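Progress report, Aim 2. The chain analyzed during this reporting quarter is listed below.
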Amino acid sequence: MTLIPLIAALMFAQGTQTSVETRTANLQFTVDDISGKHVALDSYKGEVILLDFWATWCAPCRKQIPEFMDLYKRYKSRGVVVLGVSVDESPAAVKKFVKELRVNYPILLSGTRDDLQQAFGPPGFPTLYIIDRDGQIRSQHTGLTSMEEVERTINLLL
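Predicted structure tokens for the chain:
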């Protein structure tokens, strides 16, 4: 692990919410999932999207993923999707991690694709965007995020 990811993980371990002026999410990206299938982000428009930028080397990310798994299990039937966007450079490491945890939601591989991360804002890991059914970013969180707060936002958008 390089020094920059370590510093980013430490900086955001406590979590912060960034006040977001509602803006349209750029969902005009096609990203490969962990099985190599092309996934168009705009195909999820009409659902409440939790877009989580994470990495296997990020301790707060690793801690948050089981909470997202539980949340996805409880809310997917109501039109909520969790999309994990791994920024790892090694797809093999991501696949191994996802298999070990039995992640139940789609995992996308952005690797070294800076365009996707830049479309949403400055990177910090984990960073969660909550996007409403109309494609508007309603909330942004960097670091560990309170699931109570996430659920409160989701319920407002459903």
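The two ends are 39 Å apart (CA to CA). Residues 3-157 form a domain with the Glutaredoxin fold (CATH 3.40.30.10). These observations will guide the mutagenesis work planned for the next reporting period.
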